[in-house]
């Protein structure tokens, strides 16, 4: 079943997550004994006038400090049961009655595991410390009564007046007071804060911008009243007050007047007053550690080790029971627990962790998915078992590059093939105005009502050219410098900056038909007509787009006529109730949506000077409110949004990314169920799903009707269940009914309840919550920035790379780890079985079979390299895995690591351990040391041959590992005279006995493997043959 989730509430994911984070943050502050954050009044240039104590402006991303590093790392290691278990085993060797051999036998393996962990943690802490030191040591200029002084970022205080140059990082959360830019505004790069690549326009406080020089900021008596520190980077409520003017000046402050820390000044030099520092910075409060994801594979391995622990306890009890609990039997139980401790392999965790590092390195080095980054190296096996894929649409499946496709005026529509007609209409209007302006002004009311088609087109195009947040920026092109390009509105030097690619596409289209946006600043817009005449408009008010309102508006005054016009554009669902009654809006919106176009409704309303003055007075009053400001402002704006004149509909298309269709088909054939989440109209979502082959052309689509209660939802679900091979389209409102009090980002948990793994893919900041909640999060580096990419477990540059990431790397990682884990367990069970046989033969004595270096060498230099080389094994070539995604489907059942395969390996271990031990006992001649020599050599050879038996595709490093391990063992025999008779191993008697035992332990398994491949081959072997 594929699905399309058409939800207007995708952006609500972040808001709900933010609300939760605020609560958590506040609780944390209370727990730490810190004061609850409160609103503050900050005097300009006078940090000594502070009302409360504020944190130092220090960035600290380290988990530990010098004193807490060692205890912190040790605590994090020993809070896990099995690490604590091995620590207790090692400590028990200090008790004489429990000692079974040399202390290093237990302490060296444990010390190695801890050393690897501590070195890794220390390296990470050192990197964090160096990064923090670099940021905290950056030098800034501070305005003081003595002039400009240099100050480190870490020494900046609340109330300081800080100068920030172009391309410099903003060191603290500040209110924007002054800029050197002529247009009285500046641009910010916010990609390090919110992940969005577009530049944001910021406006200084009007009162301070008008001052002659920056030093005058210290001469005025003024302060900023600011809300308490919080996590919301998209909103701010505050006021600016100047007390020494007559009358006192009050200005409302909003997000447009802020400069948040971690943003970068993109234009000019700015001066700001510091509001928040240190842990109260918006960027710091938004930095929360995402939940540590533990892979399903790791949980399964943990489950198997618990079974092994149970087996360890049972075997120890059985041994003591067979002694009839004689003497100090409780000490015997502990000694047997120590003796059989190899049943639980201490090296299992290290091998698997090192394997994950190898998988991550291989993914990064894959030339067929360039730019792929592994940010979470703990869960690569998850990629091999994904059942549900949740994907964002815009920027993930599509390129987020908008192309203007359709202009609809109600009675006539213009497509790409008829844009020249629009151009001619615009040209005719301005030609007519130039030739006979008085005639145009003298049109009767009736003529205005029955406007010609040219004037209707002109009104629509002018509205689109004015109603936006796009700013033209002029850059040097090597021939013309920036100042000259800006002065002459040079087309070749102009670049459009906006918060949305839709906006840029609309403005570029108006330029193509003759009405060009050439200039914009805080208070004015300049358009250029087809004849080269500059049209000047004054911006009176602007109402930015928000996800809640789904619309944006602007009030402008035409400088040539003095007319005041309110333009608005937005989604049809909200605009339908704002525009005057018409009979074509809903139908045409549906038609354009079915073509896969993103539809915007454009409207206008003419205002008289009196109407505007009345509105402005109420609007300014609402903006000065500190409490419920957003509600009061919205109420005032809504008083204008009535009976607006519908001008046109615009349709832009977002092109699909390269190879989206074959990638989605591959995922579907691999048994992965794909859900697309989008904020588009239902018709647009359905059209895109078909176009992307998320839904096949022959597949039925079931549109889940809007339900209001659980009863209706069950009826609708029953209707859906009766259909076969059907795609489901469900709205966010209906989803809320199915899962009450669960927002869209929790959708992944809904899938997790089925016991299946979910993968979430997205490219924007609003996808971060979904990515972090999913079992496996994949971020796409796209037009919307890197926020999703940085928050994800894996980062890719294109959606098509997801296919190879799952089919090849996910599949290989899972199969390799399954083989590696079971082989490490087999290696430990073999020697434990031999110990059990040895103890049983010698009257259940708790005496170790191997001591000292033998027991350490067995799991390290003698077998470590061949066993670990299994991380290079693969059953099929990557091309075959991509060509036959059905191979991936086999993994969803978890067969490579299951109770069945585990039991088979346990039986193999018991068989081989028993054969080797009984064989050595039967064939040894007189001395005990011969048993050790024969059995240990047979054990090493058996392990090396079993690795060879397990390998499916040989790599040259595997051969090197086998030969190296064998060479190390042979060479070390010279130094092991304490445990092995050196003269005995040089005899033919030793050689034939070891050969016979090794053959008996391994040959039957080779025969069984051959017969299985011959008569019941696995699916992948059929393809390789």
Automatic annotation (TrEMBL):
Binding of ATP, residues: 392-394, 503, 545, 569, 598, 678-680, 749, 766-767
GO biological process terms on file: endocytosis; phospholipid translocation; retrograde vesicle-mediated transport, Golgi to endoplasmic reticulum
Cross-referenced Gene3D superfamilies: Calcium-transporting ATPase, cytoplasmic domain N, Calcium-transporting ATPase, cytoplasmic transduction domain A, HAD superfamily/HAD-like
GO cellular component terms attached to this protein's record: endosome; plasma membrane; trans-Golgi network
Pfam families xrefs: E1-E2_ATPase, Hydrolase, PhoLip_ATPase_C, PhoLip_ATPase_N
Residue ranges of every copy of the P-type ATPase C-terminal domain listed in the record: 790-1017
Catalytic activity line of the entry: ATP + H2O + phospholipidSide 1 = ADP + phosphate + phospholipidSide 2
CDD domains: P-type_ATPase_APLT_Neo1-like (cd07541)
PROSITE patterns, alphabetized: ATPASE_E1_E2
Catalytic residue positions: 392
Keywords assigned by UniProt, alphabetized: ATP-binding, Magnesium, Membrane, Metal-binding, Nucleotide-binding, Translocase, Transmembrane, Transmembrane helix
Stretches assigned to the P-type ATPase A domain: 143-280
Membrane topology designation: Multi-pass membrane protein
Binding-site positions, Mg(2+): 392, 394, 763, 767
Protein name: Phospholipid-transporting ATPase
Species assigned in the record: Zonotrichia albicollis
This protein's encoding gene: ATP9A
């Amino acid at each position: 079943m594929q699905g399309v989730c058409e939800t207007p509430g995708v952006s609500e994911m972040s808001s709900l997550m933010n609300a939760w984070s605020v609560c958590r943050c506040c609780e944390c502050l209370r727990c730490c004994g810190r004061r609850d954050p409160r609103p503050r009044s900050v005097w300009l240039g006078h940090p000594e006038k502070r009302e409360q104590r504020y944190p130092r402006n220090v960035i600290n991303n380290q988990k530990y400090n010098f004193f807490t590093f060692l205890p912190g790392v040790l605590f994090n290691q020993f809070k896990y049961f099995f690490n604590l278990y091995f620590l207790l085993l090692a400590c028990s060797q200090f008790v004489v009655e429990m000692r079974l051999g040399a202390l290093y036998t237990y302490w060296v393996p444990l010390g190695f595991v801890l050393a690897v962990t501590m070195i890794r943690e220390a390296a990470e802490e050192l990197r964090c410390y160096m990064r923090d030191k670099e940021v905290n040591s950056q030098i800034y200029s501070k305005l003081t009564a003595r002039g400009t002084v240099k100050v480190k970022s870490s020494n900046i205080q609340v109330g300081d007046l800080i100068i920030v140059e172009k391309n410099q990082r903003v060191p603290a959360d500040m209110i924007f007071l002054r800029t050197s830019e002529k247009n009285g505004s500046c641009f910010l790069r916010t990609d390090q804060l919110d992940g969005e690549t577009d530049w944001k326009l910021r406006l200084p406080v009007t009162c301070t911008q008008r001052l002659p020089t920056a030093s005058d900021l210290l001469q005025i008596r003024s302060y900023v009243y600011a809300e308490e520190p919080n996590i919301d980077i998209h909103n701010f409520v505050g006021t600016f007050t100047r007390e020494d003017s007559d009358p006192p000046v009050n200005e409302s402050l909003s997000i447009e007047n802020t400069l948040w820390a971690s943003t970068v000044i993109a234009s000019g030099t700015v001066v700001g007053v510091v509001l928040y520092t240190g842990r109260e910075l918006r960027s710091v409060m938004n930095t929360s550690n995402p939940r540590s994801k533990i892979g399903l594979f790791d949980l399964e391995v943990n489950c198997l080790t618990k079974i092994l622990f149970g087996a360890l306890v049972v075997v120890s009890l059985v041994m003591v029971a067979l002694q009839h609990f004689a003497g100090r039997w409780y000490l015997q139980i502990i000694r047997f627990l120590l003796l059989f401790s190899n049943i639980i392999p201490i090296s299992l965790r290290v091998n698997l962790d090192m394997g994950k590092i190898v998988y991550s390195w291989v993914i990064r080095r894959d030339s067929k998915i360039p730019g792929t980054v592994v940010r979470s190296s703990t869960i690569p096996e998850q990629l091999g078992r994904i059942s549900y894929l949740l994907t964002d649409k815009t920027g993930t499946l599509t390129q987020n590059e908008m192309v203007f496709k359709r202009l609809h005026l109600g009675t006539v529509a213009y497509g790409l093939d008829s844009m020249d007609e629009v151009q001619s209409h615009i040209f005719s209007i301005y030609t007519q105005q130039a030739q006979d302006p008085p005639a145009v002004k003298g049109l009767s009311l009736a003529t205005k009502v029955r406007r010609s088609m040219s004037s209707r087109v002109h009104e629509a195009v002018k509205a689109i050219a004015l109603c936006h947040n796009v700013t033209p920026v002029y850059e040097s092109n090597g021939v013309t410098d920036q100042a000259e390009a800006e002065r002459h509105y040079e087309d070749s030097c102009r670049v459009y900056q906006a918060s949305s690619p839709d906006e840029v596409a609309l403005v570029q289209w108006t330029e193509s038909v003759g009405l060009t946006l050439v200039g914009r600043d805080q208070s004015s817009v300049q358009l250029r007509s087809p004849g080269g005449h500059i049209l000047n408009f004054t911006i009176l008010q602007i109402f930015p787009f928000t996800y809640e309102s789904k619309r944006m508006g602007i009030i402008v005054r035409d400088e040539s006529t003095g007319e005041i016009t309110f333009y608005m554009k937005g989604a049809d669902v909200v605009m339908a109730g704002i525009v005057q009654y018409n009979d074509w809006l809903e139908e045409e919106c549906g038609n354009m949506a079915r073509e896969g176009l993103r539809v915007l409704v454009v409207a206008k309303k003419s205002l008289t000077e009196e109407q505007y003055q009345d509105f402005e007075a109420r609007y300014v009053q609402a903006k000065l409110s500190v409490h419920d400001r957003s509600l009061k402002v919205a109420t005032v704006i809504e008083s204008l949004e009535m009976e607006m004149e519908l001008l046109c509909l615009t349709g832009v298309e977002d092109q699909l990314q390269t190879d989206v269709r074959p990638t989605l088909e591959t995922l579907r054939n691999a048994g992965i169920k794909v859900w697309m989440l989008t904020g588009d109209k239902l018709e647009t979502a359905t059209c895109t799903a078909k176009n992307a082959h998320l839904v096949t052309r022959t597949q039925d689509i079931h549109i889940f009707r809007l339900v209001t209660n659980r009863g209706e939802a069950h009826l609708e679900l029953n209707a859906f269940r009766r259909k076969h091979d059907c795609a489901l389209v469900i709205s966010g409102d209906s989803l809320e009914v199915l899962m009450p009090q669960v927002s869209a980002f929790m959708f992944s948990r809904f899938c997790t309840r089925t016991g299946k793994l979910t993968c979430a893919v997205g490219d924007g900041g609003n996808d971060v919550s979904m990515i972090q909640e999913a079992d496996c999060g994949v971020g796409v580096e796209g037009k919307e920035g890197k926020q999703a990419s940085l928050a994800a477990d894996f980062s890719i540059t294109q959606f098509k790379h997801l296919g190879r990431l799952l089919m090849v790397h996910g599949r290989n990682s899972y199969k390799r780890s399954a083989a590696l884990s079971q082989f490490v367990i087999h290696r430990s069970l073999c020697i434990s079985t031999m110990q059990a046989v040895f103890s049983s033969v010698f009257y259940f004595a708790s005496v170790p079979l191997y001591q000292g270096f033998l027991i350490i060498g067995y799991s390290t230099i003698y077998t470590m390299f061949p066993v670990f080389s299994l991380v290079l094994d693969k059953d099929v070539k990557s091309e075959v895995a991509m060509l036959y995604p059905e191979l991936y489907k086999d993994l969803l059942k978890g067969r490579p690591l299951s109770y069945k395969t585990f039991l088979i390996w346990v039986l193999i271990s018991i068989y081989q351990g028993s054969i080797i031990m009984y064989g050595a006992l039967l064939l040894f001649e007189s001395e005990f040391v011969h048993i050790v020599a024969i059995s240990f050599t047979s054990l090493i050879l058996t392990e090396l041959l079993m690795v060879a038996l397990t390998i499916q595709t040989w790599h040259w490093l595997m051969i090197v590992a086998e030969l190296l391990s064998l060479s190390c063992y042979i060479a070390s025999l010279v130094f092991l005279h304490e445990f092995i008779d050196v003269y005995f191993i040089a005899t033919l008697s030793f050689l034939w006995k070891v050969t016979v035992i090794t053959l008996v332990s391994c040959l039957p398994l080779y025969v069984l493997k051959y017969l299985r491949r011959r008569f019941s081959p696995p699916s992948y072997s059929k393809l390789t043959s």
